[in-house]
Amino acid sequence: MYPRAKIEIIEHGSESYLAAVRLRDEILVNPAGVVTTALDVAVERELIHVAGFLDRKVVASCLLVPEAEAVRMKRVAVASSLQGGGIGTRMLRFCEAHARSIGADALTAHAREPAVPFYVKAGFATEGEYFVEAGIPHIVVRKRL
Ligand SMILES: CC(C)(COP(=O)(O)OP(=O)(O)OC[C@H]1O[C@@H](n2cnc3c(N)ncnc32)[C@H](O)[C@@H]1OP(=O)(O)O)[C@@H](O)C(=O)NCCC(=O)NCCS
After folding, report:
1. Whose CA is nearest to atom 4 of ligand 1?
2. Of 36, 26, 31, 37, nearest in space to 135 by CA
3. Does the C-beta of 1 come closer than 6 Å to ligand 1?
4. Ligand 1 contact, 54 CB (< 6 A)
């Protein structure tokens, strides 16, 4: 639905990164009121940052965390007005390709309950039971690459 949207790796600390942090803090509101802190920003230096752009504006973002044999996606968010338009799925596909390119055999996430159908439609399977993270029910989702 948004064929002009481009998904890219962005540099930590760049303008795009700061826009991505603002986007995810706006979209991923949680009951604990947790937002990205200066400490998070410092820790995130080691992570892989992904953003979706529409007309050069950051409209989607997530983080990739390389773990033992899998890559974990974190803080997955699409701008409210564009949700349901396929940008999230394109970002998932990009992350799958990137994870594969760095030798991972799976892509995982801790999915918020309402977002589980989004992951399942993209071929992820749930694992185990729901648990509470940042005051919200989550479940592990995993896709073998
Ligand atoms: C979840 C999110 C990242 C999905 O991105 P998106 O661009 O909206 O998703 P897409 O348009 O690619 O949707 C793909 C499919 O998943 C479904 N889907 C997406 N979000 C959904 C939701 N919250 N509940 C149920 N289904 C959902 C869509 O209906 C679509 O199915 P369809 O192709 O049959 O219509 C985005 O909606 C979002 O940022 N939501 C708020 C924050 C959030 O929950 N992030 C995930 C934290 S784990």
Report:
1. 88
2. 31
3. no
4. no
Any domain includes 114: no
CATH of the domain at 67: 3.40.630.30
Are the C-beta atoms of residues 95 and 123 closer than 8 Å to each other?
Answer: no
Name the average pLDDT for the chain.
Answer: 94
> Could you report the per-residue pLDDT of 56-71, keeping only the tens digit for each?
999 999 999 999 889 9
More confident residue, 97 or 34: 97
> Per the structure, how many domains does the chain have?
1
CA distance 90 to 87: 5
Distance 78 CA to ligand 1 centre (A): 8
Domain of 43, in residue numbers: 6-105
Q: What pTM did the predictor assign?
A: 0.94
Ligand 1 nearest-atom number relative to CA 110: 48
